[in-house]
Amino acid sequence: MKIYLCGVFKGTLTGQLQTILALKESLMSNFEVELIKAPTKNQFFIIDFSLYLISILKIFFFGKKNHVFYLVLHRSRISFWLRDFPIYFLNNYLDTKLVCHLVGSDLLDFLNKSNRLENYFLKKYFRKIDLWVVLGSNMHSQVDKAYEMLNIKSDSKCYLSGKLKSRVIPGFVKKDMKYNFDYQKLDSKISKLNQKVSIGYMSNLIEEKGIAEFIEAMIILKENQGLEFEAWFAGATLGKLTKKVSRAIDLSSKKNYIENCGPVYGSKKWSKLAETHIFVLPTYYKTEALPLSILEAMKFGCVVVSTDAGEIEELLIASNGVFLKSTSPTEISTSISSLLKDKELLESKMREAYFFADQNFSFENFKNKVVDLIFELKAS
Description:
The chain is α/β, with parallel strands linked by helices and 380 residues long. 47% of the residues lie in helices and 14% in strands.
């Protein structure tokens, strides 16, 4: 049995790109895999798209029914036609098995924006999907709702048992052999709590990720409450910054206790997280899924202060993190203040965060679930 792994394999390292690269590594070590590389929007698009069509035609003429298409799903109208539609068509033509891996949390938004023609094909091809892979229970509910909206539950392959056939495979933090954070280093970080606490933020610098609220909360903690700490934020700029974010970043540049690290990668990122005690992500991003930055922060023993957006609620529990009731700077500063004033509570949550991430979000755990899924599909 051959597996056709379909999706985008290059570009900015997002959660979706990391997922498909991890799938590639996991599947290639156990099965015969052929990569179907979808085109990306760049100066080589025509070349990429031509190569994509050639690979599609090759499978059209020589593909076999006992193979599996594994599609990392895209959720925009352009991507539907240029990337996903050919895979749906091939799967329908060859009557093969199809796994759809959903990384983003915007499937329903995509369906609501689809026109009549797109809706027709979605109904036709979603019926042929054998199994969905999701990041958590919220995404499972979204997919279930999508089939309800399309009114195709009764005759879809993934509903043969009467309920949606899906598997939860959450994100992971892959070990960097050049920088291994272990329990001994966690102890060392905790020992510095009485010197100065480090509070960090790491995500793309877009308004809905809460960067402006983070900066304002740091100012409240320092200048209104007189608490001692050092803060930093890091992230790439995608497009033009909004006025709200620009004003906040400009204000932070005048505060010597807030460091703007810019984009951080590799050892620089690990070094920042290794020194950080509290990690804040006050996201209200509409299509939030499971932020990789939160998993990475927990793996480095950081107490995460965040919202219940997407699948975050399945990561944070009372013993390892703090849920925000709102994303206002006042609420953020209040939540962090309680940790700064109770170092024993902060230490306890740091240890719980480290163990939780280490046990549940390793690359080996991800890989084993992917391999088991394929063996199960093969046997069905």
